[in-house]
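Hello Y.,

Per our agreement to keep a running log of every chain we model this quarter, I'm adding this entry. I've kept the format consistent with earlier entries: sequence first, then predicted structure.
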Amino acid sequence: MPFVYFLGRLHVLALHLPIGIILAAVCMDWLATRPRFRHLRAAAPFMWSAAAVSAVVTVALGYMHATEGGFAGPELALHRFYGSSVAVLAVAVLGVRAFSPHSVRIGLAASGMLVVSLALAGHYGGNLTHGSTYLIEYAPLEFGRGGAPRATPVPAGVAEADRQILESLVADGFVARPLSQTDPRLSVIMNPNAAGIRAEQLESLRSGAGRIKELNLSRAGIDDAALGFLVGFENLTLLRLDNNRITDVGVAALGGITSLEYLNLYGNPGITDASVDSLVALANLRALYVWGTSISAEGLAKLHDARPELRVETGAEPAGPAEPGGGTREPGQSTLPGQL
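Predicted structure for the entry above:
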């Protein structure tokens, strides 16, 4: 499964290719309707073949990328829907141009729908990575406020204290944003290019403990000692600690975060069966990644027996406990929904 993660991250690189090809193909089709540029019709099969193939590959990589975790909410569903629509429409336009080359109006209509789907897929993809206000957060004027300057990309009505916490996190190198225009609680991500988290960054996170709902500290160089900063994160529901240096001691320290619903511990081999009781005690936990840990098949069976409703992704052959509703899980089969 780590190889699937690797391929999935190529989605961010590959998505620019079908965008350029599709826009070029649409422009060429439109120009080809004019007698002066009629010769461009000869290039249509090649362009639309490239558009269809690149779109399908990009969508496939996107589905792989979603399995990595950390993506959730309606933005993911909409991005996935419109992205898939782009692939389907690109193949449809290719079929129209290949089997009915004289159906110019049908081809142009399908191309128009394709461009709309492409724009919407890009928009909701931007929402996923930059927040729902990414298009206008740095605009010189804010709509609906009589042309008053927009001082900071924070939703209206956010308390000054929350604004200061957000700006402090951003200044300390985190990617931070409110969950929505109406929910000022924060989603915070550690810069993946950073060499490791610094002491002053931990202090910055601690200052926003009560306001942070989603926290991604993947590959942050976190060890057991550093996890002490999580005391007071009573609203935290999503926590990614994958690829760090956490052991059973660190997992036990998470017991005070009773609000946790999603926990990713992938790539921490110091976590063993001794952590099972600590994980069982997280009463609100609904999704758990334990790939690359040292939790054994017996530990997984114990976890399942204690919390049968908990969806666990191991990336290895599970012990084969009965699934809710009957039957057994196939070896290596994921039980964690991709949108998480």
